[in-house]
Automatic annotation (TrEMBL):
The protein, known as: Acetylornithine aminotransferase
A molecular function (GO) term: identical protein binding
Modified residues (N6-(pyridoxal phosphate)lysine): 251
Biological or metabolic pathway of the protein: Amino-acid biosynthesis; L-arginine biosynthesis; N(2)-acetyl-L-ornithine from L-glutamate: step 4/4
Keyword Transferase: yes
Subunit structure comment from the entry: Homodimer.
The enzyme's E.C. designation: 2.6.1.11
The organism's taxonomic lineage, starting at the top: Bacteria, Pseudomonadati, Pseudomonadota, Gammaproteobacteria, Nevskiales
Amino acid sequence: MSEVTRATFDEVMVPNYQPAPIIPVRGQGSRLWDQQGREYVDFAGGIAVTVLGHAHPKMVAALTEQAGRLWHVSNVMTNEPALRLAQRLVALTFAERVFFCNSGAEANEAAFKLARRWGNTRFGPHKNTILSFHNAFHGRTLFTVSVGGQPKYTQGFEPLPGGIRHLPFNDADALAAAMNDTVCAVVMEPVQGEGGVMPATAEFARAVRALCDKHQALLIYDEVQTGNGRTGTLFAYEQFGIVPDVLTTAKGLGGGFPIGAMLTTRSLAEVLAFGTHGSTYGGNPLACAVAAAVLDEVSNPALLRNVAERSAQLRAGLDVLSARYGLFGPARGMGLLLGAPVAEAWKGRAKDIVNAALAEGLWLLVAGPDVLRFAPALNITEADVSEGLARLERVCAALAAPREAANA
C-alpha cells in the first residue's frame, strides 16, 4: 500500500477543502491520534457529528452485526433497520412520518420541496415563498445554499432559485412584516451554528410559531447540528415549548456514519406522494442500524445529564480563560454547542487560534472568521474537558504574551 500524506490531498483531490496539516488515523472516545502517533483532545466532534466519540463499542457492534446481514436493497424494498429507526424517531418526537436520506443538506432539500409542494397543492402556485434568516446555513446543494443566509456560499453559482427571502435573526417584527399569503414556510436553526453559534431566544421562537400559524405557513426546524442530544435535550425545539411542522436532522444521528432524516406529520407527509421525491441510499440498512444504536444512547437521561454538566464545566473554563487572557469573550450557545467570539484584536483570525490549538494537541472549530466553536462528544468525560481546557490555556498564554510584551 502506497504511503499517503497531507501533500497527497493537493495532488489528487478537488481543492474545495483546506484540511489540517496532519492526518488522524485512530480515535478512541474523545481522543485522536495522527500518523505520527501524536494524541489530540477532540473538542470538534467532526463538526458536531461524533456525538458518542470515536469507536464507541455499541456503534461498532451495530455496524458489525448488520454488515454480516444486509448492506443495501434500495427503496424498491424496505428493510428492518430503517423501519425500527423510524418507529423510534416517531416515538421520541412530535413526528408521525420519517424520510431517510444521507446528509443534512438532503434532509433540508426534502423539507423545502415538501413546503413548496404543500403550498402549491393546498393553496395554489402563488404560495411558494420560503423565509430564512441572515447567517443561516442549511446545506450546500443549490437549493439549500440559496435558502441559507450567507452570500459567500452562493457567489459564482448564479442564477439562484427564486422565491427565497432572508431576514434578521431574532427579530420578530421583521418577520411579521415579511409574512403574507405567499409564504409557504419559515425555516430556522434553534442555534445558528455556522453563523457564529447564535441561539434563538425563546421569545423569538414562540413568535415564529405564532406567525406561521397566523399565515398558514409551515415552520421548519433545521436541527442538523442542534439535534440528537447536542443541546441537552434530544432536540432543541423541546426547550422552546413549541412544536415545528417539519424537522431535519443528520450529523449526530449516525455518530459518524452518513445518514439524514426529515421528520413531519402524517398529513404533511401525504404531500410527498409516490414518485415525488427519493434517495437511492436513503434508509440504508447499515446507516439505520448504526443510527438506532446512537439514538438509544443520546436519548438516555444519563447521557443528557452529562451534556448539561460538561457544558457548565466547559463554559466556566472558557469564561475563566476569556477573563484571564482576553483572546475571546464569554461563551454562548446551548448544551455542548458553544461559541466564543474573538476579541477585537483577533477579528478575522479565529482560525489562527484553532491552528495554534492543533499544534498544542487540541482540535477546535471556527464558526466563521470571528468565533471559536466547541462541539465535543456528548459523552466526553470531566477529565477530557479539563485536559482540553488546560491545553487551550497554554495556547492562550502563548498568543497573549507577545501582545502583553508590546504593551509593556
